[in-house]
Task: inverse folding
């Protein structure tokens, strides 16, 4: 399935597109996130997790959804330990 930005709040489509490109590689580096969005990685993954929790706006197949959610969860957990 594809992600469409037509009905998503501002910024959500961009966050999902980035996540979709980078989840196979662990979600992108902190530098990539900062350059793309101007925010830190913790804030990015907090926002991504919130978007994914609202399944009404996310149109992803189950394996992709699960993998993206796991990357967000793992990265947030890593940030809490640091």
Result:
């Amino acid at each position: 399935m594809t992600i469409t930005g037509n009905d998503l709040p501002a910024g959500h489509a961009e966050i999902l597109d980035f996540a979709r490109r980078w989840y196979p590689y662990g979600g992108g580096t902190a530098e990539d996130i900062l350059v793309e969005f101007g925010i830190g990685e913790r804030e990015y993954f907090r926002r991504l997790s919130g978007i994914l929790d609202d399944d009404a706006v996310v149109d992803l197949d189950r394996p992709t959804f699960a993998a993206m959610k796991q990357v967000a969860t793992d990265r947030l957990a890593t940030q809490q330990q640091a």
